[in-house]
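Q: What would this complex look like in 3D?
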Amino acid sequence: MNSILYELERTLRSKFVLVMMGIIILIGALLAYALSSGPTSVPRADRFISDNGIFTIVDAIFGVLIPILAVFMGYLTYGKDRTSGVLESVVTRPVTKGQLVLTRFIASVIAILIALVIATFIIDVGQYTYSYKFIPASMIEALIWTYLVEGAGFLGLVYLFSHLLKSQSAVLGVSIGIYLIFALLWDLVETIVLVEVFHASLGSLSSLQGLVNFNFASPSGYARNVVMYITSSSTISGISVAGSFNNSINPASYGITLVSLGVIGFAWMVVPVILTYMLAKRFD
Amino acid sequence: MIELKDLTKIYTRNGRPAVNSVSLTVNNGEIMGFAGLNGAGKSTAIRLSTGIIYPTSGTVMIDGHDIVREKVKASANVGWVPELPNFEPNAKPLTLMRYYGGFYGMKADEATSKGRELLKEVSLEESINEKLRNYSQGMKKRFSLASAMLNDPQNYFFDETLNGLDPEGIRFMRRLMVDLKARGKAVLLSSHILSELENVADRIAIIHKGKIIELMDRKKIDDVIKTDGKLEEYFFKVIGG
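A: Here is my prediction, written as structure tokens for the whole assembly.
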């Protein structure tokens, strides 16, 4: 137990984890500054930024930032050490490989959580400075949960691939690939699959259902489904905007409910790391 | 005490076992030499014994604890010095000592003070504030040795430890092994430099193509040296070279 706590403390104190936390907090501060810098000529009572608007703005930034930070965090806290052989000098200590996977993963997730809580608090203050209105607690919880799931999902994927690959460069390359496919180009990937494989016509309701389903297959897509749930609008979903879904939707009719978001979010947080844990316990 | 029972490791399907049904016991207060050519299976046997890799079959017991099933208990009494030590390059030695100390339940101050003492013992006190990336291979080996002794384990695995050490380092290692033996520790020392094993080992196991083909006690070692002058000829005779 002591070794697990020590590993947690060490990861949280490592420089690159602190730098990554700092980046999330800094971006939060910049968002807060932007939110607090609205036109002062508008009367106080009219300085209204909708909660949906806040979520949309935050998603535009965090939706890109969190995946790339989580991918690098996964590589730096685990993948690099495992493939370079540095982890061997740790594995011979009284700790199991499984414990090392779990403790480094949990410590990284805690680091992301801390950074998100601080960043969200700063964004809330920025919002209040301008509109004299705090972001509702439920919205804050949704923001933190969404990007925590997204971060943990990408982190877990990099941990998982670190166990399937043998060299540092392969892990780094695949980590970048994970970011490109599951985050940056996810809209494009899912649209191509829907059109080319499932012959869906963009703009139809069935293709929107397809996009929602595909979104659940990526941590970034998951975040987009949460945004759809919060805003009851499909316009957020990148490429799908190219279709005709710029209307309000009823998320529940597409399977986006609190339950589905909770279950799939939890799955993204635990399944990749559990698979990594099992690989670490059974294979070299 | 270190006990290897029917230990086998096959890396690739249909491949030749890197270690093939190896059984070996290193008693407390004993230095067991582990001799073999490059690729004979020495390092694999040691990596299996320290829990770095998993055996295909067989077991390794460290003071009665299975290194796979009771990893934490077994590893608490293992000190390992690899042939090519590899540490976090940007870390400083005392930072790593504190980190490693945490796994043995040592407090940061305790690990720092013990680490400082050990680094002095292995003649690294002048490089204590340098990052490990600036260390030479010999210095890394000395650091590896110091970190292996951090919790004063009962069992030591030295994998080609004498390679890359300067004459002072080699002399230090010889003295250390004699001291460890006197303190009742079990030591498994792998090397392909037979003259080093002749000097310190109580027994020597010769491993070839993954199998132990000869286990020599001290009397036999002395007899061979008396007859041939050194172990080398006998070694090649045994492995058929």
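A: To summarize the key features: The longest helix of chain B spans residues 167-182. The beta strands of chain B are 2-9, 19-26, 30-35, 57-62, 65-66, 78-81, 155-159, 186-191, 203-208, 211-216.
Q: Very helpful, thank you.
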